[in-house]
């Protein structure tokens, strides 16, 4: 018996004006040029019982306060519960800043404007609803994901600017490649996707998911959707889809994964966004090949699961705060440089600002149950290990969207915090206790299995 399944998708341009503050670096940059437009892309799945809304925004990060207020507008305007709305950031580092990160403040004008653009994308997607069918698929894409955390030779010391002691490993060892022994961890090579067509066989949308942090082959001051946008453009062309088609790439569990090849073995094209374009194009090719083997579902079951997880924070001690005050009293934040002294000052500032935070964070975990598959959502930058462990718990189509519904920052597994490295340095975007990763991951697995329809 049909449940009258419908789907709709829409894309709204969210490109900020030149001069907007850009997120993604330790110090402030301003938009000087637009290489390619940014978007908020919405996909709506609906049947007689349930409406699910997925939105992916070309932005670095989105915090809970901003997203909760955006979801409240969606609920008031369209009657869709916040628990049925998943909003995530692609994590492009070439977008307007709507949250504070390190020495980069939020651009308040852009922060005020963005929620209405997200709501507009949802409204347009709702207005395009039509009878539809969907399919999950996967492709293998190991060539573009590399662990960025490395074991180093004893001759190299990686200083932790928070503790003042040596870390056991090094993140992104630029300039010291000769000191590398090997990468610590294994990436997730899977490119997962949810494809959506009308019953008339016309393309509506395709939501991809890949655990690659971002590419970043642009100059500072550039606005770009990075490889996320290149994938979407290539996909439309290869599918020969119309202008109404919405290609979407979401960020998987990529907190310790990027494309920077410190071995020197991989050869990528030079030029601005050339690497992003190649990766986006190749990933689109892989999706195209995989689509030949998917099974289309015209009557998918839809449901959602949602929970808040409370995780304690690693807060600075009284002595650490005193040390931070002494460092900051020397001044120099205005001329901060990316050297040992600069790192010490930047992270001293972070300790003072983190001290004002609550002792625990409460953040959402979410699952959309869609036909034979499921999509999970985690509220920060989780490592590939976390995503792979979740996938090992399922025997049906599944992928995890990170940076979704909130940003609690990096959430490394406990044993990774012990090793140190940039992702673990205590600050406003890395501060949860070592057990936090397990708390979020186990709750996600519980939500995945609590709905027994699939």
Q: Helix/strand/pairing class, anyone?
A: alpha+beta
Overall residue-averaged pLDDT value: 96
Low-confidence runs (pLDDT<50, min 5 residues)? none
Largest sheet: 8 strands, mixed
Q: Give, in spatial order, the strands making up the sheet with the most strands.
A: 7-6-5-1-8-15-16-18
- Determine Rg (CA atoms, Å): 21 Å
Number of spatially distinct domains: 2
Strand content: 25-35%
The best one-word shape is: globular
Characterise this structure.
It is a single chain. With 454 residues, this protein is α+β, with helices and mostly antiparallel strands. The protein folds into two domains: 6-145 and 184-302 and 366-412, no CATH class; 316-354, no CATH class. It is built from nine helices and 25 strands. The protein has helices at residues 64-78, 108-127, 226-239, 274-290, 318-328, 340-354, 384-391, 414-419, 436-450; strands at residues 6-13, 21-22, 29-30, 33-34, 39-46, 51-57, 85-89, 130-140, 146-147, 149-152, 158-159, 166-167, 169-171, 180-183, 190-198, 203-210, 222-223, 246-251, 257-258, 302-312, 360-370, 373-377, 381-382, 398-401, 410-411. The strands form eight sheets. Strands 7-6-5-1-8-15-16-18 form an eight-stranded mixed sheet. Strands 20-21-22-24 form a four-stranded mixed sheet, covered by helices on one side. A hairpin with a 6-residue loop joins β11 (158-159) and β12. It is globular, with a radius of gyration of 21 Å. This is Neutral/alkaline non-lysosomal ceramidase N-terminal domain-containing protein. It comes from Cyclobacterium qasimii.
């Amino acid at each position: 018996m049909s449940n009258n399944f419908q789907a709709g998708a829409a894309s709204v341009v969210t490109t900020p004006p030149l001069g907007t503050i850009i997120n993604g670096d330790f110090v402030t940059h301003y938009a000087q040029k637009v290489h390619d437009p940014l978007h908020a892309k919405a996909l709506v799945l609906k049947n007689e019982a349930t409406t699910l809304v997925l939105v992916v925004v070309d932005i670095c990060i989105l915090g809970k306060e901003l997203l909760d207020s955006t979801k409240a507008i969606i609920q008031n305007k369209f009657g869709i519960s916040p628990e049925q709305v998943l909003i995530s950031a692609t994590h492009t580092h070439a977008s307007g800043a709507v949250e504070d990160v390190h020495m980069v403040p939020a651009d308040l004008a852009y922060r005020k404007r963005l929620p209405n653009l997200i709501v507009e994308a949802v409204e347009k997607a709702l207005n395009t609803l039509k009878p539809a069918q969907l399919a999950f698929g996967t492709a293998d894409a190991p060539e573009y994901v590399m662990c960025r955390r490395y074991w180093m030779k004893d001759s190299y010391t990686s200083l932790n600017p928070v503790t003042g002691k040596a870390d056991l490993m090094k993140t992104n060892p630029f300039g010291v490649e000769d000191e590398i022994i090997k990468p610590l961890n294994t990436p997730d090579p899977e490119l997962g996707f949810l494809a959506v067509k009308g019953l008339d066989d016309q393309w509506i949308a395709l939501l991809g998911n890949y655990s690659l942090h971002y590419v970043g082959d642009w100059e500072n001051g550039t606005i770009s959707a990075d490889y996320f946008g290149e994938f979407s453009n290539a996909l439309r062309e290869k599918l020969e889809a119309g202008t109404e088609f919405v290609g979407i790439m979401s960020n998987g569990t990529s907190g310790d994964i990027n494309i920077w090849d410190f071995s020197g073995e991989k050869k990528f094209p030079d030029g601005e966004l050339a690497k992003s374009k190649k990766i986006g194009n190749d990933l689109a090719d892989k999706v195209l090949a995989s689509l030949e083997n998917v099974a289309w579902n015209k009557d998918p079951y839809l449901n959602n699961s949602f929970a808040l997880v409370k995780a304690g924070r690693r807060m600075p001690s009284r002595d650490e705060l005193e040390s931070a005050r002494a460092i900051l009293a020397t001044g120099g934040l205005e001329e901060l440089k990316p050297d040992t002294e600069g790192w010490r000052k930047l992270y001293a500032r972070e300790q003072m600002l983190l001290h004002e935070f609550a002792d625990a964070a409460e953040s959402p975990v979410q699952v959309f149950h869609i036909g034979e598959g499921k999509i999970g959502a985690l509220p920060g930058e989780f490592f590939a290990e976390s995503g792979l462990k979740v996938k090992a718990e399922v025997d049906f189509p599944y992928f995890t969207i990170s940076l979704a519904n909130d940003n609690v920052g990096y959430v490394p597994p406990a044993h990774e915090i012990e090793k140190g490295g940039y992702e673990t340095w205590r600050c406003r975007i890395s501060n949860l206790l070592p057990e936090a990763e397990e708390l979020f991951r186990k709750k996600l697995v519980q939500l995945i299995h609590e709905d027994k329809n699939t």
